Amino acid sequence: MASLYDTAGIEELRSRNAVQPHRIKLFRTALFKKALGWGAALDTLPETARLDFSNHIEFQSLELLERHDSKTDGASKLIFKTPDQHLIESVILRPKTGRISLCISSQVGCACYCSFCATGMMGFTRNLTCDEILDQVLQASQIVKEEGRSIRNIVFMGMGEPLLNMEHLFSALAILCGPSFFNYAGSRLMVSTVGIPHAMARFSEQFPAVQLALSLHSARQAVREKLMPQARKYTLDVLRETLVEASRNGKVMIEYLLLAGVNDSVEDSQVLTDYLRDIPVHINLIPFNEYSGCNLHGTPLAERKAFADRLKAAGFNTTLRYSLGSDIAAACGQLVQHKNGL
Ligand code: SF4
């Protein structure tokens, strides 16, 4: 079986069925750019070739097991099953701006154990393959297409640390940006990391147009280590140098989860602005989504606004984020492998 993304395998099929090259272009356009689904893509091929293509291309790597639609906002959580029976999640976000985003997973579970994240509590099972990463995009695109819309942005902020699955992440990004595949502009893709300096450097070198987001969450080494065990390995000093380098390609997003009594004081905002001084960044302040088994609490809205005002007054582009999908456990930090009894 050839993968949908296996150029050589598809070329072999094309050649043995004497299909004109432009029909393959139509086939890929139907699948990746128009999100029309397998049947419509096959219809672009000569009738004589359809059965051979159908029998020798693996159209789906994931099975869509469940879909949960939020009753309060436009989020949909998709639960997929991998061929080896693991569950992963993706989230379609439909904000009021009309710009639909898709949040996808890069691993089954995660080895980073961030204390604010439900996925981190699961532990790590395995990396997703390139096809499994891309199948989340393909299937979600078809769902959104049925609504007469399309996915504008794709963010690697679901389960897993993408830069610990670099090989498959890089292959997937190349196909997402590839003109004969999904053809996304780099600016519409974002990879979020806990901060792994050597991987961030390689990522910035290979995909300068793709956006990078750093989950910072504190500019104090001790606090960061408590929140994110990976911070013990990669200190704030080293991370700052990497940030300066990465920002040469454009603004880096800084993700900052506001946790009551942990990282939300006046002093915390001061340390943060000192740390980021002179680096072109955009700071996203994220509300914490509580989940059972975690004893952290989110900062109340009024204090989140005050924190944002202090950052803005210090000259930083800052956005106060609101979570979508919290009623279906699809908000940031809530993705978890088991079915959660929705
Ligand atoms: S926040 Fe991201 S890196 Fe940290 S445990 Fe959760 S999935 Fe892993």
Q: What's this, in brief?
A:
The chain is an alpha/beta fold and 342 residues long. It is 37% helix and 20% strand.
Bound molecules: iron/sulfur cluster
CATH topology assignment of the largest domain? TIM Barrel
Which regions are unreliable across 5 or more consecutive residues at pLDDT < 50? none
CATH class of the largest domain: Alpha Beta
Structural class: alpha/beta
By DSSP, the count of extended strands is 14
- Following the backbone from N to C, one meets helices and strands in this order, namely EHHHHEEEEEEHEHEHEHEHHHEHEHE
CATH superfamily of the largest domain: Aldolase class I
Explain the layout of strands and helices.
Layout: E1 2-3, H1 7-16, H2 21-33, H3 38-42, H4 47-56, E2 57-58, E3 63-69, E4 76-81, E5 87-93, E6 100-103, E7 107-109, H5 118-122, E8 124-127, H6 130-146, E9 151-156, H7 166-177, E10 189-193, H8 197-206, E11 211-215, H9 221-227, H10 230-233, H11 236-246, E12 252-258, H12 266-276, E13 281-287, H13 301-313, E14 317-320
Helix pairs in contact: 6-7, 8-11
Bound molecules: iron/sulfur cluster.
Iron/sulfur cluster binds at residues 110, 112-114, 117, 119-120, 159-161, 194.
What does this structure look like?
α6 (130-146) crosses α7 and α8 (197-206) packs parallel to α11 (236-246). The radius of gyration is 21 Å and the shape is elongated. It folds into two domains: 2-58; 63-328, TIM Barrel (Alpha-Beta Barrel). It is an alpha/beta fold. The model has no long low-confidence stretch (mean pLDDT 94). It has helices at 7-16, 21-33, 38-42, 47-56, 118-122, 130-146, 166-177, 197-206, 221-227, 230-233, 236-246, 266-276, 301-313, and strands at 2-3, 57-58, 63-69, 76-81, 87-93, 100-103, 107-109, 124-127, 151-156, 189-193, 211-215, 252-258, 281-287, 317-320. It is 37% helix and 20% strand. The protein binds iron/sulfur cluster (SF4). Iron/sulfur cluster (SF4) is lined by residues 110, 112-114, 117, 119-120, 159-161, 194.
